[in-house]
Write the structure tokens for this entry.
Amino acid sequence: MSNRAVLEVIALDEQDAVAAQTGGADRLELVTDMAADGLTPSTAGFTAIRRAVDIPLRVMLRLADGFAAGGPREVDALVGRAEELREAGADEFVLGFLTPAGEPDLVAVERLIAVLDGARWTFHRAIDRAADRDGLRKRLADLPGLDTYLTAGAATGVDDGLPVLEAEAARTGEPGYEPQILVGGGLRLDHLPRLRAAGLTAFHIGGAARPQGWTAPVSADAVRTWREAVDA
């Protein structure tokens, strides 16, 4: 991947993936069931998308809506899915779980990254629901493979999270702040100038790539508009 800003697009299937790549996406986040805010796709679905495009794919690891990993049985099931996807060739992932107190669920996260075996991964928007963002970052700082945080800066979205995103961007390189900030969650085109001015260089879109809504596929033209705006 070049040094240009990263544009990541959510893809549900091969049609989405091809359109996103055509429009200029650098990377895809693969999910299913957006009614539950994005769950783990099937291994067959991953394989079909992998054959359809040649850009990096980050596969969601989550079996239920929300940011709780569940009990031992649920974590076992998720580990099994991660193993299947890894064996099918998946080499980048998205995950992140919190305890009821809003702390990082290190038991679940460490079990998963053990089977990811060094694969790169994003800690997703669970950080926006954390009791202590800074504390979460520092507790995860030494975990292998973590190279990205997907965050809006606030649970309610980028509109409210802009000051947090700017402050965290200014701390890039500090302990816990080495992973790239991938901005997503209510992101709009008009946010980009302020975010780019703060030094942020990675952006994540889902609904913004689908002008006709989630029941319609990704629009290559919509992605192209974002590509041009991100690069401006």
Observations:
- The helical segments are 14-23, 43-52, 72-87, 106-116, 133-140, 158-169, 192-197, 220-231.
- The CA atoms of residues 35 and 51 lie 26 Å apart.
- The mean pLDDT is 96.
